[in-house]
Design brief:
Blueprint lengths: L4 E5 L7 H15 L4 E5 L1 H10 L37 H4 L36 H13 L3 E5 L2 E5 L3 H13 L5 E3 L2 E5 L6 H29 L2
Helix pairs in contact: 1-5, 4-6, 5-6
Length: 224
């Protein structure tokens, strides 16, 4: 029997139904197990709440409020360079802001969201953007990446759950992403510039990897 049941009152507007279903699918992907999803009459929801009422020794039911609006985007951090003149991504990433998932400003604004560039986009002269993205991801996460298809860089994660969670979280930063099994795909193009698209891709991967790693450490500690 599934361990998670998502109950949504059937008075929720029709246009939000698919959003709720996609949320349930995200939970199932993250947990790597089925999740039950049902629409219920208001009186059934009241009965479900009463049935879930915790005993005095159990944690109380949490009421989670919507996150506040995020009008601003992440401010641009100063670049730090190594003695050889290349960006020191390891030194820079620690100044990155909170994830949008947890209330921080998204890395890019909705009007400047970053997606995969056309396959024929011209390369930036004298600069290997894809090589720099791979280098930055390796420096900040230790994850291997390679180009599998035009416009995308494939990052090998430790599990499917990790790839799925990082993918969903990166999208909230207004950077496109997709995943397949344990492979996470992020935009990458020879046309990207260092202080714009290259920095964005490395930043969101570094941020989400950091939070995922912290999450798995917490889970491991809780099961000991």
């Amino acid at each position: 029997m599934p361990r998670m049941l998502i109950v949504v009152e059937n008075t929720v507007p029709f246009e939000r139904i698919q959003d709720c279903r996609e949320l349930a699918t995200s939970f199932a992907t993250f947990l790597e197990e089925p999740v039950e999803f049902v629409f219920a009459r208001p009186e059934s929801l009241v009965a479900a709440r009463m049935g879930a009422e915790p005993s005095p020794s159990d944690p109380p039911i949490e009421v989670l409020a919507p996150a506040p609006p995020q009008a601003a985007t992440m401010s641009s951090a100063d670049f730090v360079y190594q003695p050889d003149g290349r960006p020191d991504w390891r030194a820079m990433w620690e100044g990155f802001c909170e994830l949008a998932l947890y209330g921080g400003p998204p890395h890019r604004g909705a009007d400047s969201a970053l997606g995969a560039a056309p396959a024929d986009a011209p390369a930036t002269e004298g600069f290997d953007a894809i090589d720099e993205i791979r280098r930055g991801i390796w420096m900040t996460t230790g994850l291997y990446s390679e180009v599998d298809e035009p416009g995308w860089l494939t990052i090998t994660c430790h599990s499917r759950a990790m790839a799925a969670w990082m993918c969903a979280t990166i999208i909230l930063e207004n950077v496109e992403a997709k995943f397949e099994d344990e492979r996470l795909m992020v935009p990458a193009s020879p046309s990207f510039t260092l202080k714009d698209e290259v920095k964005s891709v490395i930043t969101v991967v570094a941020k989400t990897h950091h939070y995922w790693t912290a999450h798995t450490i917490q889970q491991a500690s809780a099961t000991r």
